[in-house]
Amino acid sequence: MSRTALRICPLCEATCGLTLTVEGTRVTGARGDRDDVFSKGFICPKGASFGAVDGDPDRLRTPLVRRDGELREATWEEAFDAVAAGIRAVVDGHGANSVGVVLGNPNVHTMAGALYPPVLLAGLGTRSVFTASTVDQMPKHVSSGLLFGDANAIPVPDLDRTDHLLLIGANPLESNGSLCTAPDFPGKLKALKARGGTLTVIDPRRTRTARLADRHIAVRPGADALLLAAMAYVLFEEGLVDTGELTPYLEGVAELREAVRDFTPEAVAGTCDVEASEIRTLARELAAAPTAAVYGRIGSCTVPHGTLASWLVDVLNILTGNLDRPGGALFPQAATDRTPRPAGPSHGFALGRWHSRVSRHPEAKGELPLSALAEEIDTATEEGEPIRALVVVAANPVLSAPDGNRLDKALGSLDFMVSVDPYLNETSRHAHVVLPPPPPSQSPHHDFAFNTLAVRNQVRYTRPAVPLEPGRMAETEILARLILAATGMHGADPSAVDDLVIGQTLGKAVKDAHSPVHGREPSELTAALAGDTGPERRLDMMLRLGPYGDGFGVRPDGLSLTKLLAHPHGIDLGPLKSRLPQPLKTRSGKVELLPRPIADDLPRLRESLRHKPDGLVLVGRRHLRSNNSWMHNVPALTGGTNRCTLHIHPEDAERLGLKDGGAVRIKGAGGEVVTEAEVTDGVRPGVVSLPHGWGHDRPGTRLGHAAKDPGVNVNQLLDGSLLDPLSGNAVLNGVPVKLAAVATL
Ligand SMILES: Nc1nc2c(c(=O)[nH]1)N[C@H]1C(S)=C(S)[C@@H](COP(=O)(O)OP(=O)(O)OC[C@H]3O[C@@H](n4cnc5c(=O)[nH]c(N)nc54)[C@H](O)[C@@H]3O)O[C@H]1N2
Ligand SMILES: Nc1nc2c(c(=O)[nH]1)N[C@H]1C(S)=C(S)[C@@H](COP(=O)(O)OP(=O)(O)OC[C@H]3O[C@@H](n4cnc5c(=O)[nH]c(N)nc54)[C@H](O)[C@@H]3O)O[C@H]1N2
Ligand code: SF4
Ligand SMILES: [Mo]
């Protein structure tokens, strides 16, 4: 007998509502939930394969503990005993910073990943914190921190209402969008065109998204900051700056004008390989559109001037008056956001409060660059102790970070490592303990992070579609127990972690004059919390304290978990609204258009104009049926065009004697790999493209299907030394490489 159950899809940032078909405890089908208030039935091939992803026989079912050098099945009790012993020995012997924490991408796709890592970091008190953000969007956080005073205040393009969309280094037809949560991004782009709007795409590849565009600019990789600075220059020069209703909230317009003075279209055209006249047209079209949104993603972030490019994206939105207005780029307001405080000067955003030990990289947002993880483990300095123990949650940096071979070796040298991961893969194979979370069907879901980036305010929650199998432990409980084991409270009841957070949060709220619960008794509020589990009670608390919340009875028709559970397809909270100046947390209380660290980095951008680019550079690419490093083990999602081939333009292929389907050796600063060439004019001349997340050929993993067609690790071409200095973000695009034909693979 089969039944259906609702489940928000955790497989990309679009957060589509799915209707799962469940037989017994097995998910046998998935379709888009037509009643979902946000996704309205949209689904992509990954979501449609939810059952296969969920039921992958290679997923671990029990914890693994290393004994006599080998990972063996163990009980949860044995596993947490080993975690407590392993981590406490390092903390006691070498101090908190000797324990590193690595948080990977799926943490933003689980409730556990949103609710527990902050408690772990606070409890450990370590500065050795690394996340996927520094191989991804850290430049955007830094730019938002500097402009708006809040690293998490990221404006998103108003896809449903804009008249003009300028996409830079993003390919939402494959990625389904990022830092812009929008189910059916492709449909929204088509709707934009259907209502007479225009789409411009800046990408060195003619992607599926670029093919949909009215205008495609095949920029030279890494040159976007120059291109965008020249657009800003044109807006000033041609008197097209019109900051409209933003004007009272802005500081530094005149200084900004001065700062971009050298970046004329003529000066940057050669480096960008884009005609000066075309850059002028881009700027004029942007200014002329009734409403417009500039949006940059991976291709604009993972480059040497990632923070400057991210800053310029918002500068252009601001100079054209499009920030914070419908049809432009707006700040979403999620249901679990904190109660908005009145506008006014605040603490601002600080960078570089401490530095990494070996290369002295500044911290950003409390994190050190993932590129520096290997050296922080394998290099001794006089400054302090190397990392000797590592807690890895949902991350596979051996494939996703630069120089996997060095990291692979470094992980093997640790005193202790624990991975919270469903797979025994390239990274977790080094762990002393592997703690496997249950598959997504057995986990509850709410998008804490993505609702703060969504193109429409809405809120949804789905309980586990299938009960926990015997022997399984919820990931929330795994992380709560891990926190207790790592912080000297091993064996305490895991609910202690939730109780602690609830007590602290409510304790603060009742003292906060702006909180709806100001002056009330925390114990009375705690007793009123609904929910069957600790994480549900925490969700209830956040919803009720939040901007749409019931304020624990103050606004009886407001949100609560109980109300959300009564709306299984979610609750629509309306289109994005203008919110300035409330989100600003700068010291001035204004948008600080030319923050000091940005101004100090502009000479480096100017300097880049003097280097004439030559030689081939490498960029990445994504495929709709893949996701970073962990979905190559699902047969339904592999094969066809989803392959680890090197895309190369016919002119370059001919010059180098490379044939379609032939083998090619790619050499970079960090090493070399050999793969198959795919000759295509989908990349511009001078640029080659290889996807990331491949290279499943290391021993000791349990990825039966992925190992059959392992591909190669593109990040082995990097040595980890190329970073955007402001954010510590790795340079993954526009990387110089050399190619040679080889006889066979
Ligand atoms: N060259 C190049 N490199 C890149 C990129 C690029 O564009 N080019 N992109 C970068 C980007 S944007 C990112 S975000 C990173 C991603 O890099 P990572 O953060 O390392 O993420 P993944 O490679 O997706 O690996 C995720 C890990 O989480 C595990 N996992 C899956 N589901 C769950 C779960 O529910 N719970 C837990 N605990 N674990 C789970 C998987 O088995 C896997 O081990 O890669 C980066 N690397
Ligand atoms: N199917 C699928 N979906 C995913 C993922 C996945 O791996 N697969 N990963 C998820 C994650 S973690 C993230 S962060 C998002 C990323 O989402 P997107 O940013 O949309 O990701 P990509 O598809 O890699 O698009 C980046 C584009 O930038 C281009 N590019 C490279 N260098 C430059 C440059 O210097 N300038 C410009 N202008 N463009 C450049 C590339 O050619 C590429 O087309 O996708 C998410 N969704
Ligand atoms: S677009 Fe993303 S969230 Fe939607 S079904 Fe596909 S993988 Fe899932
Ligand atoms: Mo990412």
UniProtKB/TrEMBL annotation:
GO cellular component labels: membrane
Segments crossing the lipid bilayer: none
InterPro entries cross-referenced by the UniProt entry: Asp_de-COase-like_dom_sf, MoPterin_dinucl-bd_dom, Mopterin_OxRdtase, Mopterin_OxRdtase_4Fe-4S_dom, Prok_molybdopt-oxidoreductase
Keyword terms: 4Fe-4S, Iron, Iron-sulfur, Metal-binding, Oxidoreductase
One MF annotation (Gene Ontology) recorded for this entry: metal ion binding
Domain 4Fe-4S Mo/W bis-MGD-type: 2-58
Domain of life from the UniProt record: Bacteria
Flavoprotein keyword on record: no
PANTHER family for this protein: NADPH-FE(3+) OXIDOREDUCTASE SUBUNIT ALPHA, RESPIRATORY NITRATE REDUCTASE
Name of this chain's protein: Dehydrogenase
